[in-house]
Amino acid sequence: MSPTSPQLSALLPPLICGTATFTSQYNPDPYALPTTGIVHRALSLGVRAFDTSPYYGPAEDLLGQALDTPFVQQNFPRRDYFLLTKVGRISGSEFDYSAPWVRKSVQKSLERLRTKYLDVVYCHDVEFVSPEEVRLAVNELRKIRDESGVVKYIGISGYPVETLCELAEMILERTEEPLDIVMSYANFTLQNTRLSSIALPRLQAAGVSVVPNASVLGMGLLRRVGVPIGGQGDFHPSPKELRKAIQAASDWCDSQGDRIEKVAIRFALENWMRQGEPVGSRGDPASGISWKHGTIEQLNARKLGVSVMGVSNLDELDETMSVWRSILDGLENGERTAVESGRGLDDRLSSLSRQKDVRNLSDGVQVRLGSWFDYTWASPAPGFQS
Predict the structure, then answer these.
(1) Cα 89 to chain centroid, rounded
(2) If DSSP codes are grouped into helix, strand and coil, which group holds residue 265?
(3) Which residues are catalytic?
């Protein structure tokens, strides 16, 4: 087996548009969402990567339909954006990591996404199956990569960071090839930073190229209105006591003239952009500056920690992109980004001021969370049966 070259960290954009929100978990009717408008607007704003999964109900179909339009075909060649999807999880309690299913799932994703290849394929929610099943599925994906090239890079995703680390270490030891990418969700947030404190050094040591941080609001936990209630009802695994602590912290943010979700989004995106740099990437950062094709050496691009954003409407997308670009303006040497993008030095000064405010607000929230800071829920839940 021969890993894809160059490493994924040389190519992947550091901001990925996730499509878990295109499901009835997060919204009552995903077909009523402006999914095509979201995808088109994201591309227009410089976003060049989309994350999805067969497990996300209609998400792959909706994303594929949005990409298979004259607007995208005429303005955004396939080589200019990344598609990341998953195999293995079929439903809430059904998993299939067998070689035949992996191949079938890849083929179905190609069809639904209307593409000839997949840039990244993860084994989805690996904590629900045995380590041996994960190893065999990774090997099968690598066979597909080597045989046909329809899969470029291979990784795993899940919730418990200890499990992700153990599997990354096992795969390196057993196969002598590291995973290209390991995605964690809800583990680098205003409430929980274990992706940095526990997982980052181990995943880096295991040779993992990129570690995206997904679900910066903790699957919707860090919102003034509470967890999302979609067509499937209250799916969120957090205990009532944690929700009460989050609500108290949200009320405190209100008293400070801010909103907990605004603080949480900026905290996660900004801090992971910096702390996740060792396992970050150098692709198009969606800064508002036209991206030039060329080698990494020619571009001299900075490595940035990779984040996955999830939105359900155009206003959320625009707001998240505004925060992301403000963070870029506030980085070291961000003057150039602010000026060349047309935003200007006033925006950089505004970014630095907001950076300070969010740091103070984040400290206040985490003090109020007390013992609930860095709390994680069990995954799978006790008594789970596949």
Answers:
(1) 17
(2) helix
(3) 56
